[in-house]
Amino acid sequence: MSRTNFTRSVYTNRMAAREGAYALMWDYEAKGLVCESPGPRNGAGWALTEKGTALIAAAAARPQTNEVNPTGFAGGFKP
């Protein structure tokens, strides 16, 4: 009985993921990166603002680097 009290159901996992996604989007909305734009069935949805579009364009224009080791050297530093 006690073992089942601490297990998470599929419904609980789905709700937790949905709430996490909403929290992220509300944070982006507060920063002015997205605005609410309901989907075709009037569900939750967001659209990029000009600020969000500019941020993505700037990130895409930057040269790609190795996230873990930006220098590209094995030790993480230039010899």
Summarize the structure.
With 79 residues, this protein is mainly alpha-helical. It has helices spanning 2-5, 10-30, 50-61, and strands spanning 34-36, 46-48. The protein has a domain at 2-54.
Neighbour order of strands in the largest sheet: 1-2
The number of helical runs is 3
Report mean pLDDT, rounded to a whole number. 76
> Which H/E pattern describes the elements?
HHEEH
Unreliably modeled segments: none
Task: State the major sheet.
Answer: 2 strands, antiparallel
Distance between the termini: 59 Å
Number of distinct beta strands: 2
Which word captures the global form? flat
Characterization of the model:
By secondary structure, the chain is mainly alpha-helical. It has a domain at 2-54. It is built from three helices and two strands. Strands 1-2 form a two-stranded antiparallel sheet. It is flat and about 45 Å long. The chain starts with a helix and ends in an 18-residue tail after the last helix. The model has no long low-confidence stretch (mean pLDDT 76).
Summarize the helices and strands and which ones pair or pack.
Elements: H1 2-5, H2 10-30, E1 34-36, E2 46-48, H3 50-61
Which keywords apply here?
mainly alpha, two-stranded antiparallel sheet
